[in-house]
Amino acid sequence: MELLRIQQIEKYYGGKSSLTKAIDNISMTVNQGEFVAIMGASGSGKTTLLNCISTIDRVTAGHIYLESLDITKLKGKELNRFRRDKLGFIFQDFNLLDTLTAYENISLALSIQKKSAREIDNAIRTVSQQLGITEVLNKYPYQMSGGQKQRVASARAIITNPKLVLADEPTGALDSKAAKMLLERFQYLNNEHQATIIMVTHDSFTASYASRVIFIKDGKIFNEIGKGLDTRKQFFDKIIDVVTLLGGDMSDAL
User: Fold this and answer.
1) Distance CA 221, CA 79 (A)
2) Nearest-angstrom CA–CA distance, 90 and 167
3) Has domain 2-253 been given CATH number 3.50.50.60?
4) Domain ranges, ordered by start, for the chain
5) Sheet containing strand 61-66, strands side by side
6) I need a labelling partner for 89 at 20 to 30 A (CA). Which of 38, 102, 122, 193 fits?
7) What is the DSSP letter of 163?
8) pLDDT for the residue 58
């Protein structure tokens, strides 16, 4: 079932003297329960695309629909409600509040939704078990490793059961072991909880955990491939083939 539909969107930055076209007429759909990776070189438009989906940026032209709701038209309280209730965000730099424990960071979204203390506690205990962070719930961010902080940030993103989880280079600040653990948790959430995930990455290994990869070049969709029945290793090899076609701009993705 279609969850997200992007219809002929464009995004420009700058003024008449220095106009930059970051997104050039992109259209795509994402189904409920998909795990989609978006790849591209620096400056290709992949993060701008994610920012438009998340409503951090507004499109210059075109429309984005989530469950038939045109999110490009939302303003004020409607926009805030949409972000709060429908989206989960996972950032490369974690964005945890340093003065709050892991438990308190995760609980924020539910507190805003005015959930009871019992509902919040039950939800946090469940998600912390799923993501393997029960032992750090009472720790502050400075007391945690990068991998633990990223998993706490992931717990905060999914605790409200959002329709769509958006991840911007979620493994960029992690070592290989922590990155692999986080990606396996993403797969678990996608497979067992049907979480719909869109993840921006420049890394082929990270992208190989998704079920579909969309490649962006110069603000346009260059190609896309699906995993199908392939093993992750086979899918990784296919991703490398497309990255090679993209040329030298993607050399940092290998």
Assistant:
1) 27
2) 5
3) no
4) 2-253
5) 20-31, 2-13, 61-66, 69-70
6) 122
7) S
8) 94
